[in-house]
């Protein structure tokens, strides 16, 4: 069963790596079930902000708070309430497509009516079940990663430049994926101002400004 949509509140958040600040004084409210877009060119800090929102990194200053069904979450709980997909996401290259889906669904609950075969078909990899991931094209690997994000029970989906490596047919597939598999989950997308990546966004933060 899907978790309750995640709510996120960022207050005066900043992130520093060594002496270099990549983010300063960021404020953003993402109500549960909202689609939000973090916009900016490469190096603007949008990926770093996305990781703060996922609870993967800790802000150097300010705070990030999460709620589920109106209840505050401990930061340690947050990663298991969400799914995440980025262009450099690690897939296990020596596994086959089916083995990757099977391992993932052993670790995380699948959405209702979702299993290895359904996920493979959703990713348009129906004939690739026994193919090792290292042998897939970059577009196929991106579809696999996005399918993992949407096919997993979660309260929020976080995507970093989701149309990377996708051709026009792949972008059309992505649009259908969001339309049919987002349901009422919170969706946060980091994008280099690519309107196709964040359809229906009601919250936008431009980190280039």
Question: What does this 3D model show about the protein?
Answer:
The protein has 209 residues and is α/β, with parallel strands linked by helices. The protein has a single domain (6-206), classed as Rossmann fold, CATH 3.40.50.300. The chain has five helices and nine strands; from the N terminus they run βββαβββαααβαββ. The strands form two sheets. The protein has a five-stranded parallel beta sheet, with helices on both faces. A four-stranded antiparallel beta sheet has the order 2-1-4-5. The protein is globular. The relative contact order is 0.23. The model has no long low-confidence stretch (mean pLDDT 95).
In brief, what are we looking at here?
This protein is an alpha/beta fold. The chain is 26% helix and 27% strand.
Identify the notable features of this structure and list them briefly.
five-stranded parallel beta sheet; Rossmann fold; 209 residues; four-stranded antiparallel beta sheet; 9 strands; 27% strand; 5 helices; alpha/beta
């Amino acid at each position: 069963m899907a978790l309750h949509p995640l709510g996120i509140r960022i207050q005066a958040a900043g992130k520093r790596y060594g002496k270099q600040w990549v983010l300063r004084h960021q404020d953003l409210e993402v109500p549960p079930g909202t689609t939000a877009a973090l916009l900016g060119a490469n190096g603007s800090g949008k990926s770093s902000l996305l990781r703060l929102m996922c609870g993967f990194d800790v802000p150097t200053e300010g705070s990030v708070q999460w709620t589920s069904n109106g209840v505050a979450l401990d930061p340690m709980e947050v990663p298991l309430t969400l799914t995440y997909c980025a262009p450099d996401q690690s897939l296990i290259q020596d596994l086959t497509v089916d083995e990757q889906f099977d391992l993932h669904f052993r670790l995380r609950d699948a959405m209702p009516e979702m299993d290895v075969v359904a996920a493979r078909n959703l990713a348009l990899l129906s004939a690739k079940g026994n193919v090792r991931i290292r042998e897939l094209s970059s577009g196929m690997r991106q579809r696999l990663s996005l399918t993992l994000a949407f096919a997993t029970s979660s309260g929020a989906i976080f995507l970093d430049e989701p149309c990377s490596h996708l051709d026009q047919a792949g972008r059309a597939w992505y649009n259908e994926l969001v339309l049919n598999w987002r349901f009422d989950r919170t969706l946060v997308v980091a994008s280099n101002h690519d309107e196709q990546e964040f359809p229906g966004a009601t919250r936008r933060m431009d980190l280039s400004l």
